[in-house]
Design brief:
Helices cover 49% and strands 11% of the residues. The chain is built from 18 helices and eleven strands. It is globular, with a radius of gyration of 23 Å.
């Protein structure tokens, strides 16, 4: 087996490919047709990067699938920001595709979405700046060989995009490590009396939300160094259903679930429930309802459908039904065992039970609550 075949085999066996691997054919097609001006070290021009994200048709009739279904102007603003010296902050409620857009922007612009720093309460400065190989450090003292570069340092050196997920999860003192990097485009290494100066093409994409517990608000000094693009929840029911259907089909193929494609009506029911509880009003605008404590995002709807498909595939007849969805829907809605249970029971009794064609879902959920 050649090295190329070996790599392809390894990629095809992973659960989730990086964006630049999964959509390599589309990126190659865009590169072939891309004759527009592009910033230094960008793989695709801003025009091609936009088409990669929002989809479109190339001159030869080739179709580029949409990675983000929503306001294309927001994607244009995000790409234009990354072409300047300002960093990009994708801000919004949990589950509004911030991480998804971040990954695909990095794939289109740098051809590499793996320079990732995952923000957590335990993220320290070394995750953003650099670390040390302590065995070499003790043996040789501070040296280039003992230095362990972070994804940020690699991005600065190679003129690529660095990604920071959940920036507001990181402590404020560690967040402020970014200020020098973003304003001066340099990373000091005082132990070596040296610095890393960012190559052209370097920039940072961060994602953040302010709804979850454990959020650390960004300082005004740090916020000034970002251009903020707020990614909203989907505008309409049809748009959200389309997003869920697309992602469920992609994930189903990757996970090789032994099941038929989910009926669009089952997806529509789950999305309708989540939208109504999220908005505090029924889709027809006639009945106000209480909202649970969770966000009930598009991402959670995708998870519920996938979980239902796994149950249908391995313990059912391969066709998604209400019984397969009930536990996932209930578990997603009830985060607070007392408050959310009351909200969910009331919604089941007053809305789900009275809807034509929803009796099966009502009975399946009622058995669980």
């Amino acid at each position: 087996m050649t090295q190329t075949k070996k790599i392809i085999t390894e990629i095809s066996s992973v659960i989730r490919q990086h964006a630049e691997q999964e959509f390599n054919d589309e990126l190659t097609l865009l590169l072939k047709h891309d004759n527009r001006a592009k910033p230094t070290n960008w793989k695709l021009s801003p025009w091609a990067a936009r088409m990669y994200i929002v989809g479109g048709t190339l001159p030869d009739g080739s179709i580029i699938s949409p990675k983000y279904i929503g306001n294309a102007r927001l994607i244009e603003i995000a790409i234009a920001t990354l072409a300047t010296d300002r960093a990009l902050l994708l801000y919004g409620l949990p589950g509004t595709a911030k991480s998804w857009v971040s990954e695909h922007l990095a794939a289109a612009i740098s051809g590499d979405s793996t320079l990732l720093i995952q923000g957590t309460a335990g993220t320290d400065e070394s995750a953003i700046r650099y670390g040390w190989n302590y065995a070499q450090l003790l043996a040789e003292g501070p040296s280039k060989n003992a230095l362990v570069p972070s994804p940020m340092m690699k991005a600065m050196t190679n003129g690529k995009l660095a990604r920071i997920e959940e920036l507001t999860r990181i402590g404020n003192d560690v967040q402020d490590t970014l200020i020098t990097i973003l304003s001066e485009k340099t990373l000091p290494i005082p132990e070596l009396g040296a610095e890393i100066q960012a190559a052209k093409g370097f920039n940072v994409i961060a994602t953040a939300n302010n709804r979850d517990k454990g959020v650390n608000e960004l300082s005004s000094a740090l916020m000034r160094r970002f251009n903020t693009v707020i990614l909203p929840t989907p505008d309409s029911l049809d748009e959200e259903v389309q997003i869920v259907e697309k992602r469920v089909n992609q994930l189903g193929k990757a996970l090789e679930l032994p099941v038929e494609k989910p009926a669009i009506e089952e997806i529509r029911r789950v999305v309708t429930i989540f939208r109504e509880l999220r908005n505090g009003i029924t889709a027809d605008g006639k009945t106000k309802i209480k909202s649970p404590s969770g966000t009930l995002s598009t991402a959670e709807a995708i998870s519920v459908i996938n979980g239902g498909l796994a149950i249908a595939g391995y313990y059912g007849d391969g066709i998604l039904k209400a019984d397969d969805l009930a536990a996932g829907v209930t578990g997603t809605i009830i985060k607070d065992p007392i408050q959310d249970t009351i909200v969910w029971k009331e919604y089941l009794q007053t809305i789900v039970k009275e809807r034509d064609g929803w009796k099966d879902l009502y009975r399946a959920c009622k058995e669980i609550v």
